[in-house]
Amino acid sequence: MKKHYAGGLAVWLAVGAACAQGTLGLEDYLGQVKAKGPDYQAAQSAVEGYEKQSHQQDLTYSPQLVASYNHQDDKEQQNNPFLGPETQMDSAGISLTNKLPFGPSIAVGYSLLNTNTQLPAFYTSPQAVSFFQGALPLISYYQISPVVSLSVPLFKDFGGAQTSAGVKMVQYQLESAAQNSAFQRDQVLFNAKVAYWALALARESVVIRQDSLDRTQKIWEWTQRRVARNLADPPDALQAEASVKLAALDLQMAQENEKSARLSFNRLRNQPDDQVTESLETLEDSLARASAPIPETLPDRLDLRAVEKTADQQKATFDQAYQNIYPDITAMASWRGNGLDPSFGTANEVAFGTDHPTWTLGAQFTLSLDVFTAQRTADGYQKNYQSALENLADKRLEVAKEWKDLENHISDVQKRLDMATEIEGIQKNKADQERQRLEYGRTTEFQLLSFENDYSLARLNKLSLVLEKLSYLAQAQWWLAGETEEKE
């Protein structure tokens, strides 16, 4: 059985190395998961990405600035004797347009055209000079045109209803995705807590199983000596040997579970190997610091918020589609100034004056001749909205049931933990008294071993219940994360 001693030595060396590295607290481990864990980083990036994307529809109501400049040199052959052989034009313009949230669209612009042309030979003849009496056409001039226009929807998209619905449709969709990603991100932290406590339990289980094996090994050796001196029967030695084999099997399974727990522990903090050199908090210490205040009202879970946003998105989609049934009646009004002069200053002054304006008032009527298809389409989106409302009601019922179930689990596991703690105390007291009886020669080492194994099993059972309660408390903290984020 030397291999059992070697295994025990390896365990204690590992524990010693872990102690040398210091204790890795739960919060420090969660910090590593947040900083380097791929699952957490992916979910966090998705949350930030969706939250930023949700503002993209604000651009619908953002002012748009357009500026342009063109230079044209025209030397085209002319068949009209009144046109010159070459004309150069420089045009520039700037405009600011904006769609207002309550429906109207407004535009303000300013355009400039500078024209330079050569007079044809016709205008330089004596007959032309006499005819025009010196009032020759302008060969270099500026044409200035400031413009202000307004369009207002009077039926379809009245008050910006359709545009607003389109904006909300995309916004709610992205907000729903952000809430789902936030729920998954917090789930990663829940998984990390469970992985931390699972490794702590696995390590304590290895220590307990190793201690049990060492004690069973001593009993077997003691029984073998008694059999050799004819103080015990051979079946007693076989029974002791079977106990050693069973204890070794339990230790092997505990070591395998501990290795698996190390892999899960390291994966969440992005470490590929299975080496965990740090020591961890005990489960009892973690339970002493764990708290999860249970509110009287149902928590606003992040996944529930996501379903609510999905219902809002379907409502906005229906509102947008329903607007297509209405005819499009748009009232339009515009004012344009006109200035024309060889001098830029004079042309600009005239353009903003009241002598040469151009006013435009009008309306545009557009009606889809396939109203029935638009109605059927809107009815389809309305069905989707009704379906989303049913899903929301079912989700609220599901969250309420799961929350009540979690409350019951927390209460029930505490009852079982109190009972297991009492049983552990009884088993410990029984083993201590049996140890004293052995000192007085009133019992056997095999009987003491049996009592100590009962105590070890009671310890393991209690630790398992501690882990179970910690998991329930962590689950409550996960579900309450939405409440915390909303307050922040």
Number of domains: 2
Multimer state:
single chain
Main β-sheet: number of strands, strand sense, barrel status?
7 strands, antiparallel
CATH-level-4 superfamily name of the largest domain: Outer membrane efflux proteins (OEP)
Question: Could you explain the architecture of this structure?
Answer:
With 488 residues, this protein is an alpha+beta fold. The chain folds into two domains: 2-36 and 167-312 and 384-487, Outer membrane efflux proteins (OEP) (Up-down Bundle); 64-99 and 104-156 and 328-366, no CATH class. The protein is 63% helix and 16% strand. It is built from 13 helices and nine strands. The chain has helices at residues 2-21, 26-36, 38-53, 121-124, 126-132, 161-228, 234-267, 283-289, 302-322, 344-351, 371-439, 445-479, 481-487, and strands at 23-24, 64-74, 87-99, 105-117, 140-153, 279-280, 328-336, 339-341, 358-366. The strands form two sheets. Strands 2, 3, 4, 5, 7, 8 and 9 form a seven-stranded antiparallel β-sheet that branches. Helix 3 (38-53) packs antiparallel against helix 6 (161-228) and helix 6 (161-228) packs antiparallel against helix 12 (445-479). The relative contact order is 0.12. Residues 1-20 have low confidence and may be disordered.
